[in-house]
Structures are given as C-alpha cells and as structure tokens.
Amino acid sequence: MSEAGATLFARYAFPPNDLGYCGPDGVAPAELGRRARDFEGAWAYLRFIASSAGIADPLDERVVRNYWLGGRLLDFVDGDRLAADLRARFAGQYRGPSAAAHHTFHVFEVYPWLSLLRRTGSSHAVSVLDRCRIRTGTVLSVRGSRAVVRSPALAWRDGTLAVGDLRSEQVRWERSLLPELAVGDRVTLHWDWVCDVVTQADDTRLRDQLRGWL
Q1: What are the residues whose beta carbons fall under 8 Å from the beta carbon of 35, sequence distance 6 or more?
Q2: pTM, rounded to two decimals
Q3: Residue 139 pLDDT level (bands cut at 50, 70, 90)
Q4: Following DSSP, what letter does each residue of 47-75 receive, concatenated?
Q5: Are 149 and 171 in contact (CB under 8 A)?
Q6: Alpha helices in 19-154 (DSSP H)
Q7: What is the dihedral of CA 103, 109, 87, 1, to 10 degrees?
Q8: Sign for the pseudo-dihedral over CA of 40, 42, 44, 46
Q9: Distance (Å, whole) CA 102 – CA 49
Q10: How crowded is residue 12: how many other Cβ atoms within 10 Å of its Cβ?
Q11: 3-state secondary structure of 22
Q12: Which CB contacts under 8 angstroms, 24+ apart, belong to 196-205?
C-alpha cells in the first residue's frame, strides 16, 4: 500500500467520516488510509481507476489524486462499464448510460441531493452539494487548527445551480494530515475542512469539471 496515497486519501476522506457520513465509525485520522476499503463508495471508484490504468494499488497516489481532483487517469476509464457498475451498486439512485470515476460526479449524479434540489429548491440541498463536493479556495488567515478561506459558493438562482459569489468561511485543518498551512495557499476543501494545498492547474480542472455537472 502506498503510504503517500493512503495519506492523501485520509486528507479527503476524514471530513465526512468525522461527521459520520461515510466509512466506519470511530476511525482516527491516521487509520483512514488503512481502512480505505471500508469506504464502499470511494473504494469502488479507486479500484476502477487503478484497474483501468493498469495500476496494481488502488491507493497509489496517482489513483487517489485522480479520484478526488480529476486527471489523465480518468481517460482510461470506460464510462459505460462504470455506469453499469453504478447502476448495480446504487439501484434506483443512478440510471445514466455513462459515468466518470470522480468524487464530484458521484456527488452530483449518484447522490439524490441535486434531484431533490431541482424538485424543491431546498436550501439545505444546496448546502450539502456545496460542502460535499471538493471545492477550492484561498487561505486568508491561520490561527491554530482554524483557518479562514475565501472560496466561491454554489447558489440556486431562478431554477439553476451555479457557482456564485466568493465567501469567507472558517474551516478546520488537521496538522497530522496536512503538516503546514499558510496565508495565500490555494487549498481544497471538503465539508468544513482543509484537505490539501493544490496547484492552479488542480483548481482550474475542478472548476471546469464542476461546470460540466451543474
């Protein structure tokens, strides 16, 4: 098992696990990589990416990074085969003919929140979609295990979900997962946690992919 890949997986998987939304209960951050197989949704995508790209380890850092942030490995994934797998795994939730092995795809196409939003206009659904996706922002300040980050929020306007205005929000970060964080860093966010420091290319890719699924 790749230690770098396991650590990267933990950075992104810890926020929803800490909230009790996915994965096993009571897992310490340091154990998340070793317990990755217990995250049934994410693990299925990681295995699919690895197998499609001819990589033996689903926790290879490249595989993990492509699942959360996108990248060239996703070009090897047969979208029709993946869609068939998703239809079997998530009966009644996903009916599409093709799919992408990406966390944001799962949030918008498999989870029921976008469908609920379109039916009801629920502000709670907007909040869940916004925080469950991997979003990017810029660090404005850091104090202890808290930081203030500016990032664009999703907004529901006239029956359309779109990227809205920039907002500043207080978020948390775990030093055991991300050793350093500084003002000006471009970061990824999952729920109300900082996951990683990323590049402009990562930021652009995530924003471009998001527009394709809104």
Answers
A1: 23, 24, 27
A2: 0.92
A3: very high
A4: HHHHHHHT-S-TT-HHHHHHHHH--GGGG
A5: yes
A6: 40-53, 61-69, 79-89, 103-105, 113-120, 123-132
A7: 0
A8: negative
A9: 9
A10: 24
A11: coil
A12: 196/8, 196/11, 196/12, 198/69, 198/136, 202/69, 202/136, 203/136, 205/69, 205/70, 205/71
Angle (nearest 5°) at CA 63 between 62 and 66: 85
Q: What share of the chain is helix, strand, coil (3-state, %, to 5)?
A: 45, 20, 30
Q: How far apart are CA 32 and CA 48, in angstroms?
A: 20
- Grouping H, G, I as helix, E, B as strand and the rest as coil, residue 165 is strand
CA distance 192 to 15: 7
What is the distance of C-alpha 64 from the center of its chain? 11
For 83, the token pair is: 């869609």
163 φψ region: left (φ > 0), alpha (ψ -120 to 50), beta (else): beta
CA-CA distance, 54 to 134, in Å (whole number)? 26
Calpha distance 163→156 (Å, rounded): 9
Which residue has tokens 């239809």? 87
Structure tokens that stand for 195 in this block: 């996951």
**Residue 107 to residue 41: CA distance in whole angstroms:** 11
Q: What is the pLDDT of residues 18-53, one digit of tens each?
A: 888 876 666 676 666 667 777 877 888 999 999 999
